[in-house]
Amino acid sequence: MKKKKYKKIKRINNAMRVRTLSIVALIAILFIGLVGRLVYFSVAKNKTYKKKVLAQQNYQSQTLPYKRGDILDRNGNTLATSQKLYSLVLEPKNILRTEQTQKNALNALTKYMNLDRDDLLEYLKDHKDSYYSVYKKDMKYSKVADLKDYLKSKDGKKVVGITFSEKYVRRYPNKSLASHLLGFVSDGSIGTTGIEQYYNSALIGVDGRKYTYLNEELEQDDSIVDPENGKTLVSTIDINIQKIAEDRLAKFEKKYGSKGSSILVMDPNNGEVLAMANSNTYDLENPRNDKALLSKYTQSQINGMSEKQKVKAFNEIWKNPIVSNSFEPGSTYKPFTVAGGLEEGILKGNETYYCKGYKQVGKHKIHCSHQEGHGNLTLSDSIAYSCNVALMDIAAKEGKNVFAKYQKDFNFGVKTGIDLPAEAETSGLLYSADEMTNVDLATSSFGQTFNCSMIQMASSFSSLVNGGYYYKPHVVKQTRDDSGNVLNNKNSELVKQTISADTSKKLRSYMKETVEKGTGKKAQIKGYSVGGKTGTAQKIPRSAKTYIVSFCGFAPVENPKVVVYVVIDEIQKDSQLNTGLAVEMARDVLKESLKDMNVPKTTK
Questions:
Q1: Count of alpha carbons within 13 Å of 161, Cβ hemisphere only?
Q2: Fold adopted by 62-234
Q3: Any coiled-coil ranges, and where (predicted)?
Q4: Which member of 90, 247, 383, 399 has the greatest number of CB atoms within 10 A?
Q5: What pLDDT, in 10s, does the model give residues 511-538?
């Protein structure tokens, strides 16, 4: 039997021992390097990688809206302003990033805005992927002040994901007061009608911007470009006189009604408009409310309107008839006819006339306002009793050239250039001397067969009574920056001299007689000398027998401080020929305006 042979086991030699130790050492070195690298990343590079992580959070830039400029009355009372409103904006993605960010945000929102925690958490989870979500809109500053202050504090800076967006909303403290004069704002920045439209470029500003970023200390920081606010406008309007005029119109409309009535109040010595009131007003903060249409349409008519028809209807409501509508002025024009004759020396002031109730002009019998005739009249009587026949005689004596010249000199037929949009164009509504027939001359002498607007008449009438100076009418007198510093004063602009001071003085005395003994007796005010002229104009078509009545009055006669012009289109519940209703309204507004302006009494 053979004996088994066993291999002899080799012992580890020195070479193998060195190789093994080298491998172990290499592994140890790699392990130590890995540990060192981990320590390096977790300690030395901690800020760098934290910055990278935080940089992944979405911080958006924010618009800082400008404030549209205010509109003030002449005494500093606010007619239009802009109110800042706040919306709460949440960043659910950032708020829900960790339990701590969530806790910080919820604690702040519940404590400083009294919001429900459960509702907030549910909302955040529903919008978990959003970096911008508006949670609550259009809040006043008082609602957000506590939270805004907290977010600026040391502890508040730890809160992420809560911001506020801002916007301005146009406010009119007096709602519908001076609605046609002021106008309103569409789409936040577009002035629509009135001062808002005409001065839109001055009232608007430039938005600012807020940029949020992480600074070198990994703290949230802001870079802000401040907004540039719009300019403040000081108007010529006296809010008290405006309220007086609108209140008087409202009472008249309630008692009598009309197709439309208006009152214009001016300072005759500088062209400043003190009040501009119309019977068809609307809420400036809600101009597209269908209720505004009820002043001209029935509810059934409104319900049946298409969108296009409704837009047209609103545009009619928003239109300022004092500036944008033209009409035949009627007998308020008669003093202008007399002014031309006096200024040219054709009239001396001692003339007499005989009225038998009509005047034959060619084939046409043109009647006087007093059908039975006035009989014998002086020149002043022709104004006081508003005699058409006497005025036709005066115009015939003047001739077409003189008559047309003074229409032009008094700025009839051209725009006044008032600082309001959509002024009526009347250039084609006057006869030139070449075009005028004898009948045209006769009827034009007492204010028929040509058109003017209320602002044209009042501006021209002011020059008639102030010594002969025609001022450009205007509704804004000063521009200020948003800190109240005066940037520009809009001085009165003297356009021309229409007549001499002597002619103006004679006309004031004639119109004083109108109030003392003539057609304007109801305009008398205790303690003041008052002058004025009534007007009745038959509308076209003449066959319709519809009328516009008016009165243009001023006081005191010796040194006029106020001109009040009242126009009523088609009285509804009384005779359409009742000029006395216009006279009474003018008297009431004159009386209160003189009181408001502290004009001393002139008579016992």
A1: 30
A2: Penicillin-binding protein 2a (Domain 2) (3.90.1310)
A3: none
A4: 383
A5: 999 999 999 999 999 999 999 999 999 9
